[in-house]
Amino acid sequence: MAAETHDNKADEENGKEQAPLEKSSRMTKWLTIAVMATVLGSPAQFGYNMGVINAPETTIRAFYADLYQKSYDEEIIPETLDLAWSVTVAVYAVGGMIGSASAGFFADLLGRKRALLCNNAFAITAGVMMILAKQMPNYACLVSLMVAARIVVGINAGANTIIAPMYVAEISPVDLRGSLGTLFQFGVVLALLVAQILGLPAILGNDWGWNILLGLTIAPALFQLAVLSICPESPRYMLINKRDREAAKEGIKRLRDTDDVESDLDQLEQEYQLESKEKKFSVRELVTSYNFREPLMIALTLQIAQQLSGINAVNFYSTSIFREAQLSETNSRIATVGTGASQLLMIMPTIFLMDRLGRRTLMLFGMGGMCVCSGLVVLFTLLTRTGYDYFMWLNLVAVFGIMGSFSIAPGPVPWLITAELFNQGPRAAAMSLAGATNWIMTFLVGLAFQHVLHLLGDYTFLVFMALDYLFWLFVFMKVPETKNRSIDEIVETFNQRAEKRRGGAPANKAIYVGGGDEKQQNGEQGEGAIQSTEA
After folding, report:
1. Is 80 exceeded by the pLDDT of residue 522?
2. pTM
3. CB 313, CB 449: distance < 8 Å
């Protein structure tokens, strides 16, 4: 999944829509502390809870089965156990949907920093619930507590995917927003890897430690409460949302380590003037607008592609996948750690290649790599049945290839491109729809994959191979390259396509707002952001 959430690049490339906060790229003391408190607190919780449920799967399922037998004096049937486990895994996304849907409201009501701090209450509550799971007197109480805890921690994760990147983007100098924005995905993958390592049988993935393993989500929450509380609130929020110029001024002074901040405040004021002139779109207005149908279709399809590519099947169930490939239980858990390591390794070059090769090019490489590797997983799994052990290890490499290919582009690009396809007015509604779509697909994959694995067995990844190929074709045929293009140019391209589909009649009456002038769109570039005023 990665993080819903990455309109930082769009802000960089669309200087007309969001004025820079500061030209200097110097990492100061308080900027570093604030960014680290956010990255090691918020995306860390998201990534940790995405991966922590995977490695100890066998141990927790066995605990479910034992308590069921003690509660009802009979053995649990495999279908019932599979359903209980699938729901435990998948409801994390239900909480994510709730958290992401409400995050914007609370970020504006409480402020970015305070909303993050308050959000830690969900992680701490869920952590305590999971630590107490082994004390439940019967099977029904155990499953109910685990499901409730996963929903609560999902709320925390969903809110973090929206608020944390928002806070980092708003406190960062404009020439650091791109690199600092990628730290969110880095934090997710790093925490996922830590969860997989701690889930090894020799550490906490065993009969006595699995509940502590799940409850350790408390740790990043406590860290963030201790460190972020001493950091400044977003100056942008204080000036634009609260209209408190003095508080914004003090925040910029601390973050930039300078007293010369009047130009920064003036730039924020200009940003406020631009935003106040532009029409805000509701989700309903966005969906019903003819001009936005194509970019919205692209944005939502890429979110679906991200989740149906096979990534969460590996994140949630890689231990089961490796067992099906005839690895031992111990080797399966070690291999699961390798999936996290492969993601982490591939994120580093992606940071530098994103603006060199472009989003579309990397997306084609990533989806193509996932398609090929999914096919190889099926091939090597079947060849493993012939008795040649080296095919088992080649299968492992193919799964690592899926994870690495995902990190190239299918992980970060859907969020980045969604922000780049829409100007300021409809962007918030578009990001909300994209977030909801992403979490819904995460839920469906988490709920259904275990059953699909039992149904299709060795051929399971043929489904993902076919889907990855279809999504590759979609990217090739429909997704534009947004590298080095302003958002005004991208929006204008879609407007022209919409007019062409309508036979040349204007689909929307579009005007550019900026510099105090409004001029009707006649195919040329205007100053400021495009505003749709569809009749």
Report:
1. no
2. 0.77
3. yes
